[in-house]
């Protein structure tokens, strides 16, 4: 397993940051780090390419400030070119909503961890055969922990993260189903809390989810 993938598995939680203003990014990540989160996924907005420079600047800012304590990654990556841009900005892993062999190959060629999104056993094994490090089961929340437990019966050798609809109430259940970690969005990056500068509550929420994931 890629060394970054091993660290992601050890940390168990990836915080998914989407549409956060640049002035709020580092205060948010500081709060998440204080709550025990060690990996931040900054997503590309595929509907707004004009926002991509901000995405890349956020990845670079996290890489520079936290100097390896928090792993920066790029999410919603759909093309090899976006992989390259994210790598040049300092990303250490690439997360996608789908399985694209070219994206996985470029990610591996640049020494980053690859986490493509899949749902069915066929998609999962397609990702594994393409060389990914961890499969992102998405959208996990729609089908629940029972689905993951079922697919892990034949595919228990595949490292998986549950992503989509994960929160403090169901984090432990997903972990018991056999995943290696969790991708958490709104439960960690509540827009109202960010707007209200309640980074203390964001830290508390992060701590609760990290503790739930660790059992």
UniProtKB/TrEMBL annotation:
One of the entry's Gene Ontology molecular-function terms is: lyase activity
Q: Which Pfam families match?
A: Aldolase
- Gene3D superfamilies named in the record: Aldolase class I
**Which pathway does this chain act in?**
Carbohydrate acid metabolism
InterPro entries recorded: Aldlse_KDPG_KHG, Aldolase_TIM
SUPFAM superfamilies recorded: Aldolase (SSF51569)
Q: Which UniProt keywords apply?
A: Carbohydrate metabolism, Lyase
**What family does this belong to?**
Belongs to the KHG/KDPG aldolase family.
Known partners and oligomeric status: Homotrimer.
Q: How is this protein named in the record?
A: Bifunctional 4-hydroxy-2-oxoglutarate aldolase/2-dehydro-3-deoxy-phosphogluconate aldolase
